[in-house]
Design brief:
Elements (H helix, E strand, L loop, with lengths): L2 H15 L1 E3 H8 L3 H13 L3 E4 L2 E4 L9 H5 L3 H12 L7 E4 L3 H4 L2 H4 L5 E5 L2 H10 L5 E5 L3 E2 L5 E2 L1 H8 L3 E7 L2 E3 L3 E4 L2 H13 E7 L11 E4 L6 E5 L4 H10 L2 E5 L4
Length: about 260
């Protein structure tokens, strides 16, 4: 198969699901890891894809919203490392909020069994994961209700009113993108509004965003970079991004991820 044919096939997969993994493309196309990475590099150069850890996502569409199943396959090791670091901030008896997202979902195994912990979330996947793992029923999970988005977030007036009526110690906020000018963003207008309600309800905001989110801008803004008291990301963050974030956020935390 010629390079152009492979790249057309990869682009078709990207348009179908919004994201692809290198490991899946190797099996699909029957070529080497290096060949796939060169193809992704070319698609990135052409401006139709954006490389992320372990694969690529569709580029250039600020309103495009990949589904939860597609996003959970991207950079799982990075997300697990960020989630584990975030969980270290949680103590028994706390009341926290987790927004929808695959990195907040990855926190579930670390939260199950923390005594007297209350978790408010607008994610059915997060709520289910904690409930299934918390066999001793030590964690209270409050699901906001609302209308479900492709990313498994519950949004809209029902969710917003429920969140506005509560007060939490910290919100752990997953984002679609972070940019020095646009701040934290998401492709979904209603989800942005719901996330802003979470920010208003919390004493402290902790943003969880792997390095691939830097420079990505979604349709709707959640807030400026400065809303984060803590931002947890991975060590692959570019140096210019480190400088911009260090100036804007209260505490920039980077985690090392094994290859």
């Amino acid at each position: 198969m010629l390079a152009q044919q492979r790249q057309s096939r990869i682009l078709a997969e990207l348009r179908r699901s919004g994201a692809v993994r290198v490991s899946d493309l190797i099996g699909l196309l029957g070529v080497s890891d290096m060949t796939i990475r060169r193809d992704l590099e070319q698609l990135a150069t052409d401006g139709v894809a954006r490389k992320v850890h372990g694969g690529a996502v569709l580029a250039g569409e600020v309103a495009f919203e990949p589904g939860f199943a597609a996003k959970r396959l991207l950079a799982p090791g990075v997300k697990q490392a960020i989630a584990a670091k975030a969980a270290e901030m949680i103590r028994p008896g706390a009341a926290i909020a987790l927004t929808a997202g695959t990195t907040t979902w990855a926190m579930a195994p670390h939260l199950a069994g923390i005594p007297d912990l209350t978790v408010v979330t607008n994610s059915t996947t997060v709520a289910d994961a904690i409930t299934e793992l918390d066999t001793n029923k030590l964690v209270t999970v409050i699901l906001t209700g609302g209308v479900r988005t492709p990313s498994a977030a519950l949004v809209g007036p029902v969710a917003d009113r429920a969140i506005a009526s509560m007060h939490v110690d910290r919100v752990f906020l997953g984002v679609h993108g972070m940019d020095v000018n646009a701040g934290y963003t998401t492709p979904n207008l209603a989800e942005a509004t719901t996330n802003r309600a979470f920010v208003e309800s919390a004493r402290e905001v902790v943003v969880l965003a792997d390095s691939s989110k830097w420079g990505t801008v979604g349709l709707a803004d959640i807030g400026p970079l400065s809303i984060a008291a803590h931002l947890i990301t991975d060590a692959s963050l570019p140096e210019e991004a480190r400088r911009a974030l260090a100036d804007a956020v209260g505490d920039l935390v980077t985690v090392e991820v094994a290859d």
